Structure formats: C-alpha cells, structure tokens
Amino acid sequence: MSIEEGWSNAIEEQSGGSGQALTKTPSFCARTGVYHSLHQLGGDVEFPTRPDLDTATFVLSQFPHPDQAESRVALIDSATNCRVTYADLKRSVNSLAACLYHGLGVRKGDVVFLLSPNSLLYPTICLAVFSVGAVLTPANPLNTASEIAKQVRDSGAKLAISAPEELHKLVPTGVPTLVTTRLSNDNSLSIEELIEGGDPLEVPQARPTQSDIAAVLYSSGTTGASKGVVLTHANFISIMTLLKWTVNVWSSQDDVFLCFIPMFHIYGLAFFALGLFCVGTTTVLLPKFDIQAMLDAIQMHNISNIPAVPPVILGLVKNTSKSTGHDLSSLRRISSGAAPLSKEIAEAFRERFPWVELRQGYGLTETCGAATIFDSNAQAKARPDSSGMLSPSFCAKVVDIETGLSLPPYRKGELWLKSPTVMKGYLGNDEATAATIDQEGWLRTGDLCYFDEEGFLYIVDRIKELIKHNGYQVAPAELESVLLSHPHILDAAVIPVEDEESGQIPMAYVVRATDSGLTEDDVIKFVAGQVAPYKKVRKVGFISVIPKSAAGKILRKQLVAQSQQHFLSKL
Ligand SMILES: CC(C)(COP(=O)(O)OP(=O)(O)OC[C@H]1O[C@@H](n2cnc3c(N)ncnc32)[C@H](O)[C@@H]1OP(=O)(O)O)[C@@H](O)C(=O)NCCC(=O)NCCSC(=O)/C=C/c1ccc(O)cc1
C-alpha cells in the first residue's frame, strides 16, 4: 500500500464517515496527536520505582541464583576461549568497586574516562564505576589523541582507564590513568591487578540513586559538534527493564549472543556491557570485527543471536555461500540498528538465510538505546521498511516541520519521543538541551518518519545533518572545520554519498586557493591525519563556490543533488 492510499484509508477510518477525528488507529490518539506504545506497562513489564536504586545494584540483582551463577557463563572471549561466569563477574565488580572507592578515593560524581576496545573486563569496569556513583564516559579507541583530549576536557574526567596500546593518547591530558591489563615492560597500575587484590566484601555501602548521573556518552545529536549525552541511573534501569522484557518476548533467554558492536556506544553498552546480564544469557566476544572470525565463532559457539548493523548483514550475505564454508544453522535471530537497513539487503538476507529472523530496531544515544521493537518475525517480514512498534512506555509525535502540528498516520514529519529512558540533557550545554528537549520532555530526534495505522514506525530520511558510516555518526561540521584549517582551502562543505558497503561515506566539496595545486589525495590525507578512521573524507570535489542560503547556511541538499548528477553522468 502506498503512503497516499494508506493515508486516505486512515482518514476514512478516523472520520468514521462523519468527518470527526475518531481514530481506529490503535496507537494514535487524534485528540492529543500522540502515538502510544501498544505494549502495556504493568503485568509483564514494570519499572523499579525505588529511588535509592543504582544501575549496578539493579544489574547484579538480576544475576542467576547463586547456585547457578558459579557455572553459568556470562562471557567468552572468542580469541582465547577464556570464560567468565556470573559469579566471577559479580566478584570482579565488587572487588574493583572496593578498590576504586577505598584505594583510589573515587567518589560520587567523579568522571571516569574509559578508552578500550571490547574486552572481558569492559562490563566489570562499567559496573564498578556505577557502583561507586562515579560517572562513566567511554570513548572510541580509534579516536585520535586530540579527539580524546577534547572529550577528557569536556567531561571533566578525574581518572582514566585505558587499554595499554591506547595509553599514549591519554598521557598528554595529564589525567591519572590506569591500564586495563599490564604489559610486561611497563609498571602502570592495572585493573586486572586491582580486581585480584580487592576485597569484594568491602564494596562501598553508600550507593548512587536513580536520579544521579551514571554516564556521559558523546553524540552529535541533531546538529554539528559532538556533545555529552547525560544519562542517569533511572535511564539505564529503564532500558535494562525493557531489554529484559524484549528478550522474554523473543524467547531468547537461552540464546548465545555474539558481540562485536562496540561497548563505548549505547547500542553495545546497553546490550552487552549491562543488559544481557539481567537475562542470564551467554555472550561471545569478538575482540575486533572480522567476517571470518565472526563465521568461525558462530560455528564454534553455536551462536543464535546477533545484534548487528547493516554493513555486517550485507557482509553475511556476500561472504557466505550455500554449498561451502561454515555451519551457520545455529543462527536464530539477527537484529539491525544504528543505521537504516535497505529493503534490498533485508530481502537478500532472508533469501540466503531463510531460517533466521531479521528484525530492525531504532534507537538513539539520547534515548539510552532502543525505542522500538518487533514482537514477531512475521511482523518484521511483512514490513521490511519498518523499524517496529514503540517499546513499552514510549510515546511519539510526528511533527510537521513547517507548522509544528502533530500528524496522524501516514503523514511524514519529525519524530519526537518521550519515555523514562530519555536523557537528562547535553552536558554543560543548556542551549543544545533546550533545542532538543522541550518543556514537556519531548525529545526531537532529527529523523523524518511516519507511522502506519497499525502503529509501525518507518524512518524515511534524516533532517539532522549527520552522515552514518558503518553505523557510526560523522558530523559534517566537524570535518568542515578540519578542512578550513588547511592553508589552501578557502571554503568547504561535507555531504553524505550513498555507499553499498558502509551505508554512507563523507564527501568534501572544496574551494581551493588559486594556483594551490591541491589534489583530492592531498585533501583526503590531510583530514585522515586528524580524525578517527571512520570519519575520513573518502571523496573530494573541487568547486568554485559553496552554495549557501541568505543566512549563510550551507545548502547541502543542493550539493547532494550535484554529486548524484556527477555520478550519473559518469555511468
Ligand atoms: C563492525 C563494523 C560495522 C565494521 O568494523 P570494521 O570493519 O573494523 O570497521 P571500523 O569502522 O570499525 O573501522 C575500520 C577502520 O579503522 C581502521 N583501524 C582499525 N584498527 C585501527 C587501529 N588500531 N589504528 C588505526 N586504524 C585502525 C581500519 O584501517 C579501517 O580504516 P578504513 O579502511 O579507512 O575504514 C563497525 O564499524 C561497527 O561496529 N559499527 C557499529 C557502530 C555502532 O555501534 N553504532 C551505534 C551507535 S549508537 C546507536 O545508533 C544505537 C542504535 C540502536 C538501534 C537499535 C537498538 O535496538 C539499539 C540501539
């Protein structure tokens, strides 16, 4: 059904022939213009209301019964086959929390910077930091030293924890730093040693409360520069409760999960560093994403469930064949988030893996993770373009960009969300917070969407100026400021260019100084030297002037059209 047909059906249904706005749409209230979750709170999903509850206490309280915790495996490192049981994990968390509090004097509100790829220690560090009421600020280890210094400064970090190979990037910040594991040639204090030496019984009794800040994760939001998203313990406890409910709805309690999604982003943090421990499942960790290592791990550990991103789903389609290779029969479910999954990739995946359920979800750092869910594979299969229905406790509005009015089903507008998982705001940035969360608590997502009459959400475009490369955010404004720092670049604009493998790549339009002789390669190398690899400019066009509005705003859509035309003319 087309949008137009659906819309006229919805109007017909709403008016009931009388022209009155009486909606039959199950999730949409025509009077308030609000879409509600069709999943009722209460019954099987209930948020803990005790104010004096923190994320770590909540997660640890959900662990399997002590009789089972000694044998039930929480984590497996696929590279070493090293295993961590739930009982080990609990002891490590309490032991490290005791050391952070008594030994290092880490207190409530102190910001702890974490720079590490996924590892068996990552969840322990997160939970121990939460236990003492400190604020976790994780970062991508691929970030450059200057990107890291910026986050350290902005977050006000008092202590850092670093993988040994990344330590050199933290030294210039002057922040006291612990390494996760100690290399033989170095005498830094390590988390591993603290865990071994700590006494789990000395865990601090003064715990943070639900309204305290738990973490600050960096995201570009709907505009430009990276900002610290302030998430409270209540946000995390709510998302854990929803995740637990989701796993129950999907009957995934006995699944073995594969993790390569980075835990320094909300997707990995919420799923793998915290949420799945509330369910008692086993997670196999890939230290780094690699398609062959992923296929080996699926076969070796009988992986059944993979939270993924679109490029990985494409990778699975392209790198496996029916007749040869790995036994992937254990796979039951793959979910896709962080970037739009094209209908073509979804269909190719379903054809190649007919026994595997594929479900798309939608979430943001600002909502502490997933906002939507598909209840069943049949629902998802019938709607390959949809990201699912609102999760319990979520409300949405679809707001007309011109008029600000709330729109009914099948009308496209900006998605606004409200739920107990919505962030407190951006750290030290009241202006950005006010521009993103209104007085009533509605969060503007910067995504263009519509709902159908059954309450399924379809994200159709991005209003916010963000490029999504491999599921990572790339902010054009950040790259433009790097480009403008080049002495031979007079003006620059960065736009997304569609790319089959990675979703989108950043392309720069550059106005170069007369007779500068600057080449595409020069520009690419100049940017690559200053930003994390996923932010690299991968294509350059030279132009005489950057198109701008009367107010000086870059007309990116015009440049996108220009790049598409250029590409088509080359075919
Ligand atoms: C697994 C991916 C898809 C691919 O990994 P990869 O192949 O290793 O590629 P990378 O992008 O990590 O980096 C590779 C690049 O880094 C370089 N590199 C490699 N290690 C090095 C090195 N140590 N030194 C320096 N260079 C190096 C490497 O050379 C290479 O450079 P280049 O070839 O130029 O791209 C990876 O990109 C990835 O994990 N992406 C996911 C990002 C992600 O989690 N985003 C979520 C954001 S939060 C969000 O949106 C939440 C949504 C959500 C939605 C729904 C829900 O239900 C819940 C949540």
From TrEMBL:
The chain crosses the membrane at residues 264-286. Residues 68-427 form the AMP-dependent synthetase/ligase domain. Residues 1-22 are annotated as: Disordered. It comes from the Eukaryota. This is 4-coumarate--CoA ligase. Residues 478-553 form the AMP-binding enzyme C-terminal domain. Belongs to the ATP-dependent AMP-binding enzyme family. Keywords: ATP-binding, Ligase, Membrane, Nucleotide-binding, Transmembrane, Transmembrane helix. GO terms for molecular function: ATP binding; CoA-ligase activity. It holds the Pfam family AMP-binding_C.
